């Protein structure tokens, strides 16, 4: 369906379906297999825009379906490329993600929506031997999902060539532009062709992201699904004033008083993640911790156990804030108030996904009150306070 026709349908209040979009029948078949009928707001706006060839700047909260919003049109482009039997097999689409977990998740989405297409998808990330990823690149993927550091390493060794990338996606741009990855991202962008289509998604729009958009996006269509009044995240937020020495005991009291189906706990340091995990396990509650010192196999195993409800609690540093896409996480606990306000948005975004309700409880000490105030400014509201004695 033409973009203009779609806009007319939407203006008349007609509910859009994936069938209404100009999407490859094989992709529609995969969407049907997943049981999806109606696109989310970000998908309604982004899919036809990207298919039309325009650049997109999307401000989309986690859990709104934004991965499919760019994966579906990219798969369509790759399918057209394959069907035209063009002999060149260089990478045509590049998606950059900030963490290993998110890169894997995005790759799985591409595989899922492209299961009936003859399109090759590759995923590369740090934390495992480069030999595995060299094999991936030797299969000549049409679509590559990557974390910046590992991709630059493979480019430097001559295994990856970005000279014919025609569409570039920067996902979770606000995290991609922090001090750890900013230079790598900018170096990769320099290696891309000048003429290409760009899509940038971010849950928040700090100054550094806005600055970058002006350098890589050309007359982009702006999509801000926060203005949409339906299907948004429904997260009940609470703050509890708890001093640092009492936080672990307060957490255990909270967990014992409520039978939560699944709980994701965020802490600031790797050492604290292990300490909190041990304290919960002592209470005979199966718990795993994931952080940067864990091997990739350990992190993936813990996520799999959590996803399959074999454990009900996962303790994580912010390495996991962008890479967990697990349905029905009932509670997110911030044991520490993050110093970077935008990080808070991503943490609590692990619950209340895809229109489902969720809860986020944050422990705040006296020293963290200023950081909490900045978070409330970003949220545009004051978080309700709960008395610790009421648990």
Task: Explain what the structure shows.
The protein has 391 residues and is α/β, with parallel strands linked by helices. The chain folds into 2 domains: 3-227, P-loop containing nucleotide triphosphate hydrolases (Rossmann fold, 3-Layer(aba) Sandwich), CATH 3.40.50; 234-390, P-loop containing nucleotide triphosphate hydrolases (Rossmann fold, 3-Layer(aba) Sandwich), CATH 3.40.50.300. It is built from 15 helices and 14 strands. The chain has a 7-stranded parallel sheet with strand order 3-4-2-5-6-1-7, with helices on both faces. Strands 10-11-9-12-13-8-14 form a 7-stranded parallel sheet, with helices on both faces. Strand 12, helix 14 and strand 13 (357-364) form a beta-alpha-beta unit. Helix 7 crosses helix 9. It is globular, with a radius of gyration of 21 Å.
What is the succession of H and E elements?
HHHEHEHEHEHEHHEHEEHEHEHEEHEHE
Mean pLDDT, as a whole number?
87
| Protein structure class | alpha/beta
CATH top level label of the largest domain: Alpha Beta
How many DSSP helices?
15
| Proportion of residues in extended strands | 15-25%
Going by CATH, the homologous superfamily of the largest domain would be P-loop containing nucleotide triphosphate hydrolases
Ends apart, CA distance between termini = 54 Å
The spatial strand order of the largest sheet comes to 3-4-2-5-6-1-7
What is the CA-atom radius of gyration, in angstroms?
21 Å
Q: How many structurally independent domains?
A: 2
Q: Please give the share of residues in helix.
A: 40-55%
Low-confidence stretches: 1-11, 227-232
| CATH architecture verdict of the largest domain | 3-Layer(aba) Sandwich
Largest sheet: 7 strands, parallel
Task: Please tell me what the overall shape is.
Answer: globular
How many DSSP E strands?
14
The CATH topology of the largest domain is: Rossmann fold
